[in-house]
Design brief:
There is one protein chain. With 186 residues, this protein is mostly helical. The protein has one domain. The protein is built from 8 helices and no strands. Helix 3 runs antiparallel to helix 8, helix 5 packs antiparallel against helix 6 and helix 5 packs parallel to helix 7.
């Protein structure tokens, strides 16, 4: 177990505390991708196959820490764009009625928090893309589930968005602690 913990710590480690927070977020989101179809299996049974294409985003999320070693800005952009693409694909496959647009909120928060001052234009562009995603997905996608199934999915997606906001808070507070410790040692 200690080897696994060490491998995980080395995988997400980065000298920039904010990039390490991004690596943590990418890892958590990426490793949770396989669970969404399982959740849908319990909610909509036969229609859960519609979430299977979302698994294609998993390697992109998991590539973020690897890219961050050479190109941190590219890694942060990859994290946000993969998140946006994943939400858009989910809406296209499942339908806007599932309340998936709420996931644009933590996506926009990730974009707003992880970029440095010198990357402000990129950050603003990423936040604008999250906002645009919210707008363009209104009414998008199929209408293949019953109202009660969509209501269950709305609850699931709202809880996922709130939970992800909590994970963002944990990741960023850890980064702030590293920055404060680093400054105290100066």
């Amino acid at each position: 177990m200690k080897k696994l913990q060490r491998a995980y710590a080395e995988y997400i480690a980065h000298p920039d505390p904010l990039m390490e927070a991004g690596n943590l977020l990418a890892f958590v989101i990426g490793t949770n991708q396989p669970f969404y179809p399982v959740y849908l299996l319990f909610i909509v049974d036969a229609g859960s196959w519609r979430a299977l294409p979302l698994l294609a985003s998993m390697p992109f999320f998991l590539a973020v820490p690897l890219l961050a070693r050479r190109f941190p800005l590219g890694a942060r952009i990859l994290l946000v764009l993969t998140s946006l693409a994943n939400i858009l694909l989910a809406v296209a496959m499942i339908g806007a009625q599932a309340g998936l647009a709420v996931l644009f909120i933590p996506c926009g928060a990730i974009a707003a928090i992880l970029f440095r001052d010198r990357e402000r234009l990129v950050m603003l562009a990423m936040v604008a893309l999250a906002m645009a995603g919210w707008l363009v997905t209104n009414g998008m996608g199929p209408d293949v589930f019953s109202p009660s199934e969509y209501a269950s999915m709305q609850r699931l997606n709202a809880m996922s968005a709130i939970g992800l906001c909590g994970v963002i808070g944990i990741a960023v507070s850890g980064s702030l602690r590293r920055i404060e410790t680093s400054n105290a040692n100066l």
